[in-house]
Specification:
Elements: E1 7-14, E2 17-25, H1 30-38, H2 41-46, E3 50-58, E4 62-69
Parallel strand pairs: 1-4
Antiparallel strand pairs: 1-2, 3-4
């Protein structure tokens, strides 16, 4: 007999490196997971002074935040 999990652990990466983990409902939608991931302390530290280029969400397991050096000008 298989049991469905109520919660899962989502890995939050910045530029391919794991920066945080979140416990989220198994049925979390992409938009909510995106918001939660960007609000974590690990993402804030890793993306400090950098520009967020893209956020790739594969709900409910992975969020990858892609950054680049901030433009100076």
């Amino acid at each position: 007999m298989l049991l469905a999990a109520d919660e899962v652990e989502a890995v939050v990466q910045v530029d391919g490196r794991v920066r945080d983990r979140l416990r989220v409902p198994a049925d979390v939608d992409e938009r909510r997971l995106h918001e939660l991931a960007l609000a974590t302390a690990g993402v804030a530290r890793a993306s400090s002074g950098r520009e967020v280029v893209r956020v790739v969400v594969r709900a409910p397991r992975v969020v990858n935040v892609v950054t680049r050096a901030a433009k100076t000008g």
